[in-house]
Automatic annotation (TrEMBL):
It holds the Pfam family QSregVF_b. This is DUF3820 family protein.
Length: 78
């Protein structure tokens, strides 16, 4: 029997990354997708916050690190 693969990736996360606003800190009110990479790198070094926001920020860090942020632009809701 073939082992069924399960994906931990949720496609809705990209929509969240494009539209959720930063709830705290220096960039409070900014859409997550507009956070600068050095700010995300700082979190990578110091530790991402716990919970869903930490998961979103860590995912965004990986997206920006790999130059894939262009994928989020069409998902921004006006």
């Amino acid at each position: 029997m073939a082992k069924q693969e399960t994906s931990l990736f949720n496609p809705n996360m990209l929509v969240e990354l494009a539209n959720t606003r930063m709830p705290f800190g220096k960039y409070q009110g900014y859409r997550l997708c507009h956070l600068p990479e050095p700010y995300l790198a700082w979190f990578k070094q110091k530790g991402f916050p716990p919970g869903k926001m930490g998961v979103l920020l860590e995912t965004l860090y990986e997206i920006k690190l790999n130059g894939l942020e262009y994928l989020l632009i069409p998902l921004i809701k006006k």
